[in-house]
Design a protein that fits this description.
Number of strands: 0
Radius of gyration: 19 Å
Low-confidence stretches: none
Largest sheet: none
Distance between the termini: 49 Å
Helix content: 40-55%
Protein name: Helix-turn-helix domain-containing protein
Mean pLDDT: 87
Organism: Hymenobacter rubripertinctus
InterPro entries: Homeodomain-like_sf
Shape: elongated
Strand content: under 5%
Number of helices: 4
């Protein structure tokens, strides 16, 4: 309880460490929530950002309609940062 974790979680981590070392502690592919915006959406996001560079709220609203998905301006902001970090800086150009 010192770490605020369940005992079973700590045991599980320790077992993974013993069997696979540091690599055993990495999250496996497929863990976590699926992304709302994906690499396939990059072109549409780029076009929407180019059309309205200064208003994240407006870009979010238009993309919600185009993509028929619900997401927040913060989600869009994180997606744009990830696109730039991945080397596709043209997303904000």
């Amino acid at each position: 309880k010192v770490l605020g974790l369940q005992r079973q979680t700590v045991y599980s981590w320790f077992a993974r460490w013993e069997s696979a070392g540091l690599a055993g502690l990495a999250n496996a592919k497929g863990q976590g929530r699926p992304a709302i915006l994906t690499a396939a959406d990059t072109a549409q996001v780029q076009a929407a950002v180019r059309a309205n560079r200064q208003q994240l709220q407006d870009v979010t609203a238009s993309l919600r309609q185009e993509l028929d998905r619900q997401f927040s301006p913060l989600t869009l902001k994180r997606f744009l940062k990830s696109v730039v970090a991945s080397g596709d800086a043209s997303a904000t150009a």
